[in-house]
Amino acid sequence: MNDSIPWQEKPPWDKYRRILSGFDPSVILAIDKTPRPNVFAVRCLSSEARTSVSNISRVKHQNIAKVYEVFVPHDALYVVTDYVPTSLSMILDCTLGPSPGQIAATFHQVVGGMKYLTSCDLACVCLQESDILVANSGHVTIGNNHPISSVYLRSLTASASFDNCYSYRHPGDVSVLSRTMVKAIQKRREGEGIWPGDYREVFEDLNEWSVTFNDFFFQTVLGVSWKGLSYHPFLTSAPGKEVLIPLVKIAQASGKFVMGGQWESTQWGV
After folding, report:
1. Which one of 32, 46, 190, 221 is at 20 to 30 Å from 269 when CA atoms are compared?
2. What terms describe the molecular function in GO for this protein (predicted)?
3. 185 and 231 together in one domain
């Protein structure tokens, strides 16, 4: 953990220029006003998110969304983060499903980030596939779309809805991993011309995958801690993040790849 970055009591538009807006009105694509501008995502949040923003702005980990600046003009709250247009959800929607090696490369990074958060007594309030972003390089980050809270606060505010926030047996949402693995198997079946079927058929398909894949899957179903998962052979033998690059390219080529949907160009003279 590090000291939180300073909060600036002014709008961000003196330093950033809005260029695009998406279907999600809370996220704005912007560039910084420098001779060689970079692209960022500027998120507009309610004042209720102050605690979560304070938490994530103090966290420094390669697999957790990086906060560059925070602006608090009046009742608004703007957070500047990296612009990463491709999520794991989009990859699953747009491809024939990641291979076991690609799943391992993704989860190795997700588990690393969640393990670090739990060591700081923090957790993603609701870790979902849409919150797991994959950069063009294959680099994975979490904490992009949902709040980072203390474990205690999380236990008080967790939703009972399995569909929305999965299970809460441990800090974070371990079951998102097993759900992703099930979806990957189903997508592979679709690619082979086999109707996805129900979960029972997916369990039968596990026999065709490796022993370490199967064991890791059942560990996630059982709700093993993030720290425990980090030592599993399925992750410790994972290939490098570069194996994810083809999946990102396919998702982007499909035209479905931007946060909250495709971006629509706007004429913001800011």
Report:
1. 46
2. ATP binding; protein kinase activity
3. yes
Specify the pTM.
0.81
Q: Residue 96 above 70 pLDDT?
A: yes
Q: Which residue has the tokens 């560990």?
A: 219
Task: List the CATH number of the domain containing 229.
Answer: 1.10.510.10
Q: Report CA dihedral (76, 171, 134, 79) to the nearest 10 degrees.
A: 10
Q: Tell me, what CATH number does 26's domain have? A: 3.30.200.20
Token pair for 70: 């925070």
Give the amino acid at 260: G
Among residues 68, 171, 167, 78, the alpha carbon closest in space to that of 119 is found at 171
72 to 8, 13, 18, 28: CA distances (angstroms): 6, 12, 17, 16
Residues 29, 20 contacting (CB under 8 angstroms): yes
Average pLDDT of span 131-145: 90
Return the H-helix or E-strand segment holding 116: helix 100-119
Does any domain span residue 217? yes
Q: Is residue 1 part of a domain?
A: no
pLDDT at 19 over 80: yes
Task: Give the model confidence (pLDDT) of 35-49 as tens digits.
Answer: 999 999 998 888 778
Domain count, the chain: 2
Predicted confidence band of residue 97 (pLDDT cuts 50, 70, 90): confident
Task: Based on DSSP, count helices (H) and strands (E) in the chain, helices before strands.
Answer: 11, 11
